[in-house]
Amino acid sequence: MLRTSLKRVWDPKIIRYFRPEDTRIVFSTFQRGYASSMTPEDFDIVIVGGGPVGLALACALTSKSASSSTHNSALRVALVEAADLSSVRNWNPEREGDGTFFSNRVSSITNASRRFIQDIGAWQYVDESRTRPIEEMQVWDGISDSRIEFLAPPTTAASVPVHEMARLTENLNLQRGLLRRLDEVRGRGSTLTILDKTKVASIVSDVNGSSSSLPSSPSLSTASVSFTGWPLLHLSTSQTIRARLLIGADGPNSPVRAYSQISSYGWSYNARAIVATLRHGQSGYTSFGTPRNHTTAYQRFLPTGPIAFLPLSSTRASLVWSTTPELAQALLDAGDEVLARMINAAFRLPDVSMRYLHRFILERWARATPTAVNTGRQADPKLARKQGFVSVEEIEGEIQWRERAHTIHPESALSSTLTLSTDPAHEARNEANVVLSSEATLYPPLVHAVQPGSAASFPLRMSHADNYLGTRTTLAGDAAHTVHPLAGQGLNLGLSDAASLASTILESASLGMDVGSPLALKRYPEERYLANHGMLSSTDKLWKLYGTAMGPVVWARSVGLEVTNEWTALKDAFMHFAGGSNDGAYMQRMTNKNEVKLSQRDYPGISLPGVEILAAALEGISGVMDGARTLISATTKQNKGRTQIENSTLRSTSTSASTGTGASSLGNTGTHA
Questions:
Q1: Which residue, among 182, 231, 237, has the nearest Cα to 209 in the 3D structure?
Q2: Long-range CB contacts (< 8 A, 24+ apart) of 505-509?
Q3: Residues 571, 587: contact at Cβ < 8 Å?
């Protein structure tokens, strides 16, 4: 009976819909079922989740503690992760002929996040040959082609190269570096315990308050502490651990958040993001004689969602394409070759042609018959896909026809009809003699192929927890908030959470405070809640702003984009705030000028520069959009009503005319005939 209950409770499809009042019933049931006289193993900090955020938090807590001679050395930290971390620790990507295979899970690390990783000693273990600096961004409107160009602003931080706004790397590369740093710290006698290949079976609140296994210390004395209310974690290994503070870094469907009875708000975007690793040409020269820049990120905002090209090396890039769920599945079912052609077209063809191609693919996909995928044992009907419903030749023919209709020259930067070869040597010979047009750098290199097995998709949603603190629990990363990937800030928000939370815990421990008490953790939500809310709000409004093709909205956003592109100081401010820069006199000057005092019920008097200004501006634009929609809808209804009245009047006039003068009319008609 208990096993059945556990399985049902931790099914993510079920726990996603739990309300706080539901968790009281569930966890009290667990509490009765797990009554045991066995003394649990106690830890000061238990982190659930071994992703980049959980590993960075553990690294920050143990690295700082190990190097400190204060009371912090008494902190005992445990990290619980369901996966086998040895596979991450020993990760060695496969090699292919002209480069490397890259994972499709890639993140943009801002300068602030990178400094944090450097400060905790983990960046030295990150393979920098598998990272790529972002020095420039090209962003444009998919309907009006209005464009904004971002160049990395100068930085005064010695740890970050000049003119670098972010650095792209695979999540596995970052996780491996963090694990190697943790292994180094543990080798020096750290009090860190890693429990991987271990699932959390249940979390209950300790009602017995049994004795502690924690060693007493001047800062964290256990002599007079009541353990009632401490979280008890029952693990899949039959082990029980108890936490002074339980930290949930366990993703959007967080069991720790459910145990803490913390509600969250948010919504689905009814969209999916296609991710893939792309192979493109290595080089080429512009008409100015300069080599093509492979440190530029490209993003085009289509009405169905933004598509982004993120460079990983001189021949590899990462794709993030947000679109409708139906189109995402159709593109994946069409195969890698068709997807590569559609990616090239999505960055170049006008919106009217992209809408036609989308309709063409969706209509063919809807008529296709799904075939079950053979999983090795037997065909699984749940994994049925509509493969092969459209050929590469058909897509190429449609794209070429659309380019001719738009009078796009085959050698133009807007042309995506270059014959694509899967032979790297053939590509090198062809591109050695290619002279690109002066506009070529405004668009990404042509994609030659999609790395086999890398194309996938995931649903998009926005959510934010109502609070970050529970009873001896706190949330960080995706457990506290999820954001649309159009700004590439999801992981950076989580790393900022980890930095703030670690600093708060270590400071409280150094003062002899109970690190699980609300007073000791008060600074963490004060620093992070509104900052995260500002970024979530900004990206949400950008999604809505560019998700419409309404003429007035397109005009307004295009003018705003062009004006911002000419306002260098404003662009630099956006880049500093988006990159989390907080160094030097520039930030001090901008803070003095643009600081906004905000108040919230739980955290009054928080001051946040910059990001809330952008959020407020986008909120205003969103309000204008909503008003325009309402006005257009009302006008449309009014016109329809007026048309109906006119039609009714015409019908009544026609009826009366036919009864009175119908014979004359017929007679005239017959005469003319």
A1: 231
A2: 505/45, 505/61, 505/75, 505/245, 506/61, 506/64, 506/65, 506/68, 506/72, 509/44, 509/71, 509/72, 509/74, 509/75, 509/219, 509/220
A3: no
pLDDT, the chain, mean: 76
Q: Write the Ramachandran bin of 51: left for phi over 0, alpha for psi from -120 to 50, otherwise beta.
A: beta
What lies within 8 Å, CB to CB, of 480 at 6+ separation is 248, 257, 464, 465, 468, 497, 532
Q: Which of 105, 90, 114 minimizes the C-alpha distance to 196?
A: 90
567 Cβ contact partners less than 8 Å away, ≥ 6 residues apart:
none
- Torsions phi, psi of 12, nearest 5? -60, -25
Strands annotated E in 281-376 = 296-302, 305-311, 316-323, 371-374
The separation between CA 203 and the C-alpha centre of its own chain, rounded to angstroms, equals 28
Q: What is the largest CA-CA distance in the chain?
A: 115
pLDDT at 217: 43
Query: What one-character-per-residue DSSP string does 389-447 give?
Result: SS-HHHHHHHHHHHHHHTT--TTSTT---PPP-S-HHHHHHHHHT-B--TTGGGSPPPE
At 7 the pLDDT is 38
pLDDT tens-digit readout, 474-527 = 999 999 999 999 888 899 999 999 999 999 999 999 998 999 999 999 999 999
Report the distance separating Cα 263 and Cα 18, nearest Å: 9
| Model confidence at 438: pLDDT above 70 | no
- Radius of gyration (C-alpha) of the chain in whole angstroms: 29
Query: pLDDT tens-digit profile of 594-647?
Result: 333 323 333 333 333 344 444 445 555 555 555 555 555 555 555 555 555 445
Strand partners, 193: 78
Q: Are 472 and 231 within 8 A, CB to CB?
A: yes
Residue length of the chain: 673
DSSP conformation letters of 95-136? EETTEE---S-EEEEEHHHHHHHHHTT-GGGS-GGGEEEE-E
* pTM across the whole model: 0.77
Whole-number pLDDT of residue 48: 96
Q: If we measure between CA atoms, which residue out of 539, 530, 463 comes closest to residue 500?
A: 530
At residue 19 the predicted structure's pLDDT band, cuts being 50, 70 and 90, is very low
Half-sphere exposure of 515 (CA within 13 A, CB side): 30
Helix (H) or strand (E) segment spanning residue 336: helix 336-346
SS3 144: coil
Which tokens is 360 given? 């063409």
The two tokens of residue 154 are 């100068």
Percent of the chain with pLDDT over 70: 66
**Torsion sign across C-alpha atoms 54, 55, 58, 61:** negative
Place of tokens 């005239």: 668
C-alpha to C-alpha distance for 580 and 123, rounded to whole angstroms = 18
